[in-house]
Amino acid sequence: MTTPARRRLMRDFKRLQEDPPAGVSGAPSDNNIMLWNAVIFGPHDTPFEDGTFKLTIEFTEEYPNKPPTVRFISKMFHPNVYADGSICLDILQNRWSPTYDVSAILTSIQSLLHDPNPNSPANYEAAQLYRETRREYEKKVAAIVQESWNDDDDDDDDEGEEDEEESKAGS
Amino acid sequence: MSGDINRQLSHMSEASSMGSDGNSSEDLEEDNEYYMDNTDDLDLDCPSKADDPEYFEYEPLQLIDAEGMLNEEIEALCTKLKVNPSTAKMLLFGHNWNKEDIIENYQRDPQGFLIESHLASRRKHDNLIGVRPTCSVCCRDFPPDRFLGVACGHMFCRECWDMHFQTQIQDGITTGIECMAKECSILVPEDFVCEILSQPKLRDKYSKFSFNDLIKSHPRLRFCPGIDCSVIIKAKECKAKKVECQACGAIFCFKCGLNYHAPTECDVVKKWLTKCEDDSETANYISAHTKDCPRCHVCIEKNGGCNHMQCPSCKCDFCWMCLGDWNNHGSEYYECSRYKENPNIANESMHVQAREALKKYLFYYGRWENHAKSLQLEEQTTAQIQSRTQRKVMNNEGTWIDWQYLLQAAALLKKCRYTLQYTYPYAYYMEKGSRKELFEYQQSQLESEVENLSWKVERAEIVNRGELENQMDIAEKRRQTLLKDFLEV
């Protein structure tokens, strides 16, 4: 059955394949177009460089009138990412526009890694270290970059919860 | 308005009392005395603008009247500025209904003012490319005539606008609906929404929600916060004053809509209530319902509003709050409402400071909570007075009117205790200094007179009527004095 949300997600997928933005990738899960898996590569010249961070994107039938729920599956240490991996980003909440697509969401999150906003901290420790002792912050980030590679070993065809448990066990 | 109603009520009570004039000449004399007294009492309830710090003019409106009033204001602006009603409505909504400011700003620079109000844009309209341009929301191609846009010129297909409005309205957003384009905060006017919305049900919802938005944004209109009450209160100015809804009886502050809270200010009382909610566990633990008699240690449950306790077993008089001897309270002044700060606190460790802060809070919270409880218990006292009056009338001990002063005393007691309750958050947040000392002095005066009144009301049968009425007068005067000095007018 095709609905406006599914039709639009097919378009998003096509656009992502035809015109892939640098450093991000994403695709619908095997049997459900409403649930996507995505990867963001840590941007150059940031402490996140070389990391491969996995995320899930969950859409509702109200998409694109309502934003999807985006969460990091890989362990993350960032002022605007909560402990459960959910992200505090204005365009995913009150500044959402129906003209955003998956490509725009992923590139926005990528630039959030570049420019954290320590004034609205989702992770208080990360925000404080980012502001006060940048070196400590970078050390903590380096640790989760390392961990993001370990994730890859378990990356067979399991997804979602399995991965999350693996990354928790590794911490 | 409030004054007028009170005046009317007082006329009514006088008229009804006239009807049931006494039987014998003795009664007549007594009655005349009663009326004389009564007018004195009524002066308290029937204040004039000059000397009542709580005086506030307001009137209740029905939904339809409020709608008419808003429409009048909108139409007036339409004709003045020569804009359409949708735009006028948005301008008033966005600028606090300040017509003078809107007119001045608009006449100085119409385009600039509309842009600032998110109703116009300098942006050029989207160029729809090709025979079948693509809608950037649903990514489908349509003939150009299917595309629509508002002031910013971002063009989308009719279906996508419709879906956008549906989701927004379902989230309760109406007057705040914005254009769909990213980083575009142009507001979508009502006529555009209603023209496109395909579901008639949602159109009704839209007009209901947007009407609510308009009322809430209007500085001189307030929804009555009473449960299931649809009355809208209209006042001359937006002030933190007492409003009593004639329909449901709710008493609230016009400015913030919370329970009336004089002499404390809106933001202070909000801070206090949040604090009480956060700290209620500790406070609940500490404020128990029973206390031991300070002399014979028998367990006493407080079942009335009065803080002047008399132990039923050893007959000692003590104060419920401080467990001190009551006789020391009555004579000079009531020390028990004043918190004594430890003077060496600055030199103490963090731990001691934290304990001291909790102690200070618990001191004020205890008194706040105690008056709240007493107020509930005074309700019982009122009910008792009512049933006793009934019994007396049945036994031919005077007429119903003869005993009305008891109910008046109970009502006045409630009013005084209510104000007293709200003096504690005020005092808690007050800076140390001579003004706080004055406040606490007046508070203690009120506290002591309220307790005297409470004691007399509970023992109304054995207290002389003149004495009771005298006490009523003193208590209300104390309340007025405190409000006059500390309530922002």
TrEMBL record, chain A:
Q: What broad class of enzyme is this? A: transferase
This chain's source organism reads Plakobranchus ocellatus
Q: What is any one GO biological process for this UniProt entry?
A: DNA repair
- The record's region (Disordered) falls at 1-27, 144-171
Q: Which residues does the UniProt record annotate as the domain UBC core?
A: 4-150
- On whether Nucleotide-binding is a keyword of this UniProt record, the answer is yes
Q: Which EC number(s) does the record attach to this protein? A: 2.3.2.23
Q: Which UniProt keywords apply?
A: ATP-binding, Nucleotide-binding, Transferase, Ubl conjugation pathway
Give the InterPro entries listed for this entry.
Answer: Ub_conjugating_enzyme (IPR050113), UBC (IPR000608), UBQ-conjugating_AS (IPR023313), UBQ-conjugating_enzyme/RWD (IPR016135)
Question: Which PANTHER family does this UniProt record tie to the protein?
Answer: UBIQUITIN-CONJUGATING ENZYME E2 (PTHR24067)
For this UniProt entry, the molecular function terms from Gene Ontology, in alphabetical order, are: ATP binding; ubiquitin conjugating enzyme activity
Protein's name in the database: E2 ubiquitin-conjugating enzyme
Q: Matching CDD domains, A to Z?
A: UBCc_UBE2A_2B
Q: Which family does it belong to?
A: Belongs to the ubiquitin-conjugating enzyme family.
Highest taxon of the lineage: Eukaryota
Q: For bias kind Acidic residues, which ranges apply?
A: 149-171
- Residues at the active site: C88
SUPFAM superfamilies from the xrefs?
A: UBC-like
UniProtKB/TrEMBL annotation, chain B:
Q: List the residue ranges of the region (Disordered).
A: 1-41
**What Pfam families has UniProt attached to this entry?**
Ariadne, IBR, IBR_1, UBA_ARIH2_N
Which residues are in the RING-type domain? 131-340
Enumerate composition-biased segments (Polar residues). Answer: 1-23
Give EC number(s), comma-separated.
2.3.2.31
> CDD domains recorded for this chain?
BRcat_RBR_TRIAD1, Rcat_RBR_TRIAD1, RING-HC_RBR_TRIAD1
Localization per Swiss-Prot or TrEMBL:
Nucleus
Keywords carried by this UniProt record:
Coiled coil, Metal-binding, Nucleus, Repeat, Transferase, Ubl conjugation pathway, Zinc, Zinc-finger
Q: What is this protein called?
A: RBR-type E3 ubiquitin transferase
**Organism of this sequence:** Plakobranchus ocellatus
